[in-house]
Fold this sequence. Notes:
The chain has two helices and nine strands; from the N terminus they run αββββββαβββ. By secondary structure, it is mainly beta. It has one domain (6-133): Pnp Oxidase, Chain A (Roll), CATH 2.30.110.
Amino acid sequence: MSELTSEGIKQAYAQESTSAYLLLYTITGADLPATLYLACNNEDVISDGHTFIATSIEGVLPEDSLDEQPKAKIQIGNVDRAISDALLTVSQPVFVKIQVVLSTAPDDVQLEIDELQLRNFQYDALFLSADLHPHDILSQQIPADRYDATQFPGMV
């Protein structure tokens, strides 16, 4: 989903609103003990059957550079040491999905950003920070297969 829904647009342009936009983060990885569900809010949020743990999350937008692929930064309040313990022990890629929902309808996703990869974890007693990288399509091999005598005996 790349555009706000009609309800999201209506709430954004309303002179007064009873809803707030909430950011929900779903962090997955092959060797994470469990999927992490985090909410940038002061209380837990239940959305789509999952409880998103309330924590402070700050994001820094990527710099506009021609020399390297853009990467944003994310800083998560290390409220629960289980978050840093889980993320710092992984050896496989870790992915994050960011969803924007309204506080009055947390099951209705207004906007979704998927396939972001977390890299370069750093932490201290208060915060866990990491770089957010988009799916790296520029360094994929094209074509994906190699044509050799073993795989394609009739072509070589």
